[in-house]
Amino acid sequence: MRGTIMDYPLTLPGILEHAGRLFGPHEIVSRRPDKSIHRYTYADFYRRARLLAEALTKAGIEPGDRVATLMWNHYAHLEIYFAAPCIGAVIHTLNLRLHPDDIAYIVNHAEDRYLIVDDVLLPLYEQFRDQVDIERVVVVRLDGGDLAEGYEDYEAFLETATGDFDYPAIDEYDACGMCYTSGTTGRPKGVAYSHRAVVVHTLAVAAPDVFDISMKETLLPVVPMFHANAWGLAYVAVMTGAKIVFPGPHLDAENLLGLLADEQVTMTAGVPTVWLALLQALQKEPDRWDLVPGMRLLVGGAACPESLIREFDDLGYTVLHAWGMTEMTPVGTSGIPTPAFADLDEDTQYEIRAKQGRPLPFVDMRVINDDGEAPWDGETMGELQVRGPWIADSYHNPEEPPTSWTNDGWFHTGDVVTIDADGYVKITDRTKDLIKSGGEWISSVDLENALMGHPDVREAAVIAVAHEKWQERPLACVVIEDGKETTAEQLQEFIAERFVKWWVPDAIEFVEEIPHTSTGKFLKTALRERFKDYKLES
Ligand code: ADP
Questions:
Q1: Which of 108-122, 216-230, 389-403, 404-418 bottoms out in mean pLDDT, i.e. has the lowest?
Q2: Is 327 a catalytic residue?
Q3: If I label 394, which of 3, 12, 173, 414 is the partner at 20 to 30 A Cα–Cα?
């Protein structure tokens, strides 16, 4: 049947125009490196994003060209988030926590043409400048100092525009953004997002049963704008008109708590390590910061220990757990409770909230193991495979033949999961982190979360070490809270009360700290390297 609905493209200018028309007075707040506050409105943001779009066009940026950013979270980054896509170009967010050599590899691999960089990050750029071929470097002067030769000032660049600008025609399947995986388990791989994927993802993520974000929200993304599109939150904020608070470079507990209180933030988002630090500060001085009661903390990127959810509840703040991947734009599940939830006993409620949540609409999931497709029974483990309108179907210029997609069009997440009858996904491990003991799997994530629930333990990571009889056995690396004392035997007993005997780690190593990746996850490759010759007592 013909003659139905208009063929109207799902592209980012639609979101920018909507915001410009409807949210003019709404606020966007950014904290600069010197901790002073930059405050402007959506009307300013809209005008400047369009000026930047025009200036980039005048400067020769063509559809499909990559405009890289090396920036903290702030207003100018948001301007580029929209300006580049709105002329058909591609914003490529660089991860400033990577080694300069790795950033250079990524810039070259993505073939970035222009770079927009924070002045405070120029020293980082200068460490890899000679390894890359960037045509123009535009600098956002957050600190306001002088500019060395070879750099252009962002404000002067905006002034090259006149305000007379029309969007070019953009196909919704054209790329609008690019991000490399953080390389937790291998060399970073580039993912290009289409306008359609980002727009549909944005609509889905805002929905009440996903993240429930509306214009009533005051949103502070701690998750960097270079980490998987800040989990879609920058686009969601602009689509809904939520007030946005950008933290800039100061991401320690004290500074974040101050900003959360000053701006009366209602929702914030980041990886578990950020919240562990915040929790400690709040528990030490519960009355120091005047936070919004019931403030929501969106936690993802790595498994959220159940103890973290409980302890934030005790303080009056609500953790919402979600799961995603760079390859998925990135959100795949959300843990918003169902109506049936209220009837469950407290322990079951926490057990469910520590799972990663239920799939978003249009994210198809299946669990595959040696026996084929596993039932959704909450017990049978297997690899999670996904497909949907915001899931990548290839990597950008892959160096090796792609092995991440099945012949029938599903993406291998590399995560081992169970899904229960209600659709709650539980990540038991990454395929590469699973411990295979005597042919059976032990979940390192479950052990870590249990250990981190012990009052004396700050952080815990569990890895496999070689064993003559069992091939692999778990070794727990544990960081103890300041001023606390506990023994390996006590921790092993603590675990034995909660798990079957053969899951109990054979040894506990007390370490100064757990190494983290550039996006705040446990860097288990480093621990495996450190303990590669570890001898377990038989
Ligand atoms: P990288 O693969 O380099 O770490 P990503 O940030 O894309 O880059 O990581 C995605 C992976 O992070 C997922 O496949 C999963 O293993 C892990 N992950 C993300 N969110 C969660 C979560 N809520 N719980 C457990 N693991 C998570």
A1: 389-403
A2: yes
A3: 12
